[in-house]
Each structure stands twice: as C-alpha cells, then as structure tokens.
Amino acid sequence: QVQVVESGGDLVHPGGSLGLSCAASGIFVRICSMCWYRQAPGKGRELVERITSGGTTNYADSVKDRFIISAVTAKKTVFLQMNDLKPEDTAVYYCNVITTYSGPQGYWGQGTQVTVSS
C-alpha cells in the first residue's frame, strides 16, 4: 500500500508563484511515474504534468512554459513549480503515483487547494 500526500497549496495573487510537493510512502518496489492533476470547480480532472522515473516529462498546453515538474525519485518526491499563476489555474491539485504493481490508476493523494485571486 502506498500513501500519497500533497502540500503547498495556498492563496496567491495573479502573476505569483507557488510550489507544490508530493511525497509517496509505504511499501512498494519501484515508482514508474508521478503526475500532477487538477480539478477546477465544475470541471473534470485534467493532467497538468507528468514525470517518469527516467526523467521524461509531459506538460499540458495550458501550463507550458509556466509550470515545471521535477522529482527526487530516491526520496519518492515530486515537485510542481508554478509560475505566472492565473485565475484559471485555481483548482484542487492532486498527485498520482504509479508503481510497478499499482496498475494504471495508481495511488492518489487527497489534493491541495490552489487559489489564484486578487
């Protein structure tokens, strides 16, 4: 069983920056990928950024050149650096961790709220 915990969500002004962290713990052999998703009010959950154990990254077009994902795989931790935040970025941000035996659904954290407002 793997536990996933996000942290760092806060209220920020437009144009500001915020860093999110996600830590995975528990008993598992290997992490295959760690991802950040978000769900805005009234909208479905969308993939924001993804990083594999090999360092390959994928970005949603909406956050390209603004958000940066990075990870310290040995510590089972992933970070999301969010810059030039916009009101449209307001959402609950979730971390998803896929391990060798998790299946494609992976393990999910409870989410952390990011609110971008003046």
Task: Report on the architecture of this protein.
This protein has 118 residues and is an all-beta fold. Helix content is 0%, strand content 55%. The protein has no helices and eleven strands. The strands form two sheets. Strands 2, 4, 5, 6, 9, 10 and 11 form a seven-stranded mixed sheet that branches. Strands 1-3-8-7 form a four-stranded antiparallel sheet, with no helix packed on it. The termini are far apart. The mean pLDDT is 93.
Q: Which features would summarize this protein structure in a list?
A:
0% helix; 4-stranded antiparallel sheet
Q: What fraction of residues sit in β-strands?
A: over 45%
From the alpha-carbon coordinates, what is the Rg to the nearest angstrom?
A: 14 Å
Extended strand count: 11
Helix fraction?
under 10%
N- and C-termini, Cα separation: 40 Å
Structural class label: mainly beta
> For the report, how would you describe the main beta sheet?
7 strands, mixed
Average of the residue pLDDT scores: 93
SSE pattern: EEEEEEEEEEE
Secondary structure elements and pairings:
Blueprint: E1 2-7, E2 11-12, E3 18-26, E4 31-39, E5 45-52, E6 57-59, E7 67-72, E8 77-82, E9 91-99, E10 107-108, E11 112-116
Parallel strand pairs: 2-11
Antiparallel strand pairs: 1-3, 3-8, 4-5, 4-9, 5-6, 7-8, 9-10, 9-11
